[in-house]
Amino acid sequence: MPRFLHTADWQIGRQYGRFVPEDAAVLAEARFGAVERIAALAAREQVDAVLVAGDVFDAQAVSDRTIRRLFNALGGYRGPWILIPGNHDAALAESVWTRAQRLGAVPDHAHLLLEPGVRAFPDLGFAVLAAPLTQRQTHGDLTAWFDAAETPEGLARIGLAHGSVQGILAEDIDSPNPIAPDRARRARLDYLALGDWHGFKQVDERTVYSGTPEPERFRDNDPGRVVRVHVPGPGQAPVVEPLEIGRYRWLAWDATLSVASDLDVLVERLDGLPPDTVLDLTLAGAIDLAGEQRLEQALSVVQGRCRSLQVHRAGLRLEPTDEDMAALQADGYVGDVIAQLRQRQDAAAGEPSDTAREALAILARLLGDRAGERA
Predict the structure, then answer these.
(1) From CA 47, how far away is CA 33, in angstroms rounded?
(2) Are 229 and 48 in contact (CB under 8 A)?
(3) What are phi and psi of 229, to 5 degrees?
């Protein structure tokens, strides 16, 4: 009656170029932390093995230090780790896996299944049918041989593969690498552990994507999970339970500000964000100077409290009211400049970089500071 954890898509060595260096480094480090938490969970649950369904590494060219750190992270669980390559770390003739072996970095309890085949674990009650990727992309189903594969009698049949179940996943997946949707049934598998889709997804009672254990995209598809699986016995339906394991929560918000209450709602939402949040915020609409100052204050607080904040303001117009203009004493030439900036801002609405809006905000802040000094 084997019990194991199923995980995939660790993407160790992933780079986060869209973030500032400080945030990028922390998010890259979080991927090692996810593996360490999986090891701790496996030890605590006393599972028979951990199945890793590909894309352990994000690329072939990760550093030797990254390779050693990854395999060191497995040390928290001394049972078997059973790993296959995916499309990002395919088992090429020369690969990240062959380099890891030359470095002597692979511990004895890590089983690298770099070629298709059956690996039996009779003491643990199961046999693994492995379909590793030996090239980045293939247009044939690498699990097709499962159907005719023989495994020792009395052992649960566990499939381990990385690819796209046909007709199930979205079109913008990482790679084609097709897998038949009824492979588990046709191959008499007790469980088919899959990788490539970065969110948890149960295709049928025996076919499951674990998803990535640490979110790394703003896609709402249940990432940050590991799957606990119990196979009662050969031929019996497995008990599948996704468990939260990720640290950071990635959120993508769109907010349109039209009236003062819209800003109230946004500020309240921002105040409620937990520290381990990675937020991508896109703003649209219009805001006056008082609202701009309040928004800046709220964003400043969030930036100091959350892991990462990225704000896109190209669609948010800054529209000083008559009261704003009077308070800034923006008459004469300065008033003309503000009027011109407002016209250019409207003309540039929707552009990736709205310099007119930025100039208007800077000028308003300078005038506000000067008015404050006079008072």
Answers:
(1) 20
(2) no
(3) -125, 135
pTM score of the predicted model: 0.86
Quote the tokens at residue 243: 């468990």
Could you tell me which residues come within 8 angstroms of residue 47 by beta carbon, excluding any fewer than 6 positions away? 3, 4, 5, 79, 228
Residues counted in the chain: 375
Q: Quick one: tokens of 305? A: 């409290």
Quick one: residue 303, left, alpha or beta (phi over 0 = left, psi -120 to 50 = alpha)?
alpha
What residues are paired with 4 via a beta bridge? Answer: 49, 229
Radius of gyration of the chain (CA): 27
- The helix-helix angle for 289-305 and 260-271 (nearest 10°) equals 10
User: How far from 228 is each of 50, 192, 249, 362, CA to CA, in Å?
Assistant: 9, 13, 21, 54
Rounded distance between C-alpha atoms, residue 261 and residue 259, angstroms: 6
226's CB contacts (< 8 A; 6+ apart) are 5, 6, 7, 38, 41, 210, 213, 242, 243, 245
Taking only the tens place, the pLDDT of each residue in 193-233 is 999 999 999 999 999 999 999 999 998 888 999 999 999 98
DSSP helix/strand/coil, 238 = coil
Closest listed residue to residue 48, CA positions, set 90, 70, 78, 20: 78
pLDDT at 323 over 90: no
CB atoms inside a 10 Å sphere around CB 202: 12
What DSSP character marks residue 237? P
More confident site: 225 or 326: 225
Pairing status of strand 277-287 against strand 207-209: unpaired
Quick one: tokens of 73?
């992270």
Rounded CA separation 318/345 (Å): 8
Backbone angles phi, psi at 308, to 5 degrees: -155, 145
Question: Side chain identity at 35, as an amino acid letter?
Answer: V
Beta-strand pair 239-244/164-165: unpaired
Q: Give the helix/strand (H/E) hosting 242.
A: strand 239-244
Q: SS3 of 254, please?
A: strand
Calpha distance 109→168 (Å, rounded): 34
What span, in angstroms and rounded, lies between the C-alpha atoms of 127 and 121?
A: 6
Instruction: Write the DSSP assignment of 111-147 as a string of letters.
Output: EE--SSEEEEETTTTEEEEEE--SSS--SS-TTGGGG
Cα 231–234–236 angle (5° rounding)?
60
